[in-house]
């Protein structure tokens, strides 16, 4: 039997947590032969709810579940002890009428202690996925408070945006989602993000040619993807949860699995300076990986329209970084 992988989920009793922990425990990310130990972390008033989640995990009798550790946010080092993966969901979601960036001073401080505890207690090979918003800048805060954890181990989630973009293009073109390849999100998980339809293919042909409607792509399509989180909040009265958990699962799978030829995946990573984007800024790019080390896809071309969109989203990330400079170590 393989050595169990330890994976921590903060905010495990929240909406996303409830959709996420069972699917991880079931073997969906690491496969049917890889045992996992789930570390579930919550604020003290929600520890009772974690007891219920542990009971339900027991009642699933997953062959892959090798143990459950529960910890409160008052003792994050116990929660992250020896973890190979940490998924940071725990934080406050936005309400109708707010932008994700409005959460920056509410949620940002959570990520200083998170970074410090990851550095102090997690396994040497830890990889961290930040979901809690504003996720790019929260990831930057955690990373800067954990200077001994290499910068290529930090990810913030833009996979939900990628999935939304793929679904929109599939619906518009009348083709299956699997026909849409190469779609990647650039920049921030926010209303400035750029879903790069110019470098996307549908059924192996340029998405621009297949859709045949530049105005729709430049206006309705981009706006729909940028505003989808707000539209879900308006319709459901709460922020996306099942689709967010699904995207977190997809991100984890993508970062541990060699990327299939001809495909890319989106995540915000610590910029290595590719495409002139500030080194160290947590920015979403098109990525590939060998399952261990990721690379930014090189050689993509951006016309004036695309470059202006990328510049705008990077400028927003720079401004968020300025807003939290007191939280950066
Ligand atoms: P929720 O309120 O249902 O759950 C959040 C949970 O986090 C709660 O159970 C709460 O007790 C817990 N929590 C709060 N502070 C904590 C802390 N310091 N340590 C540990 N746990 C803590 O919210 P949700 O719908 O699950 O959303 C969680 C976050 O994910 C929000 O910030 C939301 O905006 C974000 N989100 C991001 C994406 C994305 O694509 N990146 C998508 C959807 C939601
Ligand atoms: C989303 O994209 O659905 C999440 O980031 C939640 C939100 O506030 O939009």
From TrEMBL:
InterPro entries in the record: L-lactate/malate_DH (IPR001557), Lactate/malate_DH_C (IPR022383), Lactate/malate_DH_N (IPR001236), Lactate_DH/Glyco_Ohase_4_C (IPR015955), Malate_DH_AS (IPR001252), Malate_DH_type2 (IPR010945), NAD(P)-bd_dom_sf (IPR036291)
CDD domains with a match to the protein in the record: MDH_chloroplast-like (cd01338)
Keyword list, A-Z: NAD, Oxidoreductase, Tricarboxylic acid cycle
Keyword Transferase among record annotations: no
Domain named Lactate/malate dehydrogenase C-terminal: residues: 158-326
Record bears the keyword Oxidoreductase: yes
GO molecular function: L-malate dehydrogenase (NAD+) activity
One Pfam family hit: Ldh_1_C
Domain Lactate/malate dehydrogenase N-terminal: 6-147
Binding site for NAD(+): 11-17, 107, 131-133
Catalytic center residues: 189 (proton acceptor)
Enzyme class: oxidoreductase
Catalysis performed (reactions): (S)-malate + NAD(+) = oxaloacetate + NADH + H(+)
EC number: 1.1.1.37
Top-level taxon of origin: Bacteria
Binding residues annotated for substrate, in chain numbering: 94, 100, 133, 164
GO BP: any one term: tricarboxylic acid cycle
Its job: Catalyzes the reversible oxidation of malate to oxaloacetate.
UniProt similarity note: Belongs to the LDH/MDH superfamily. MDH type 2 family.
Protein name: Malate dehydrogenase
Source species of the chain: Symmachiella dynata
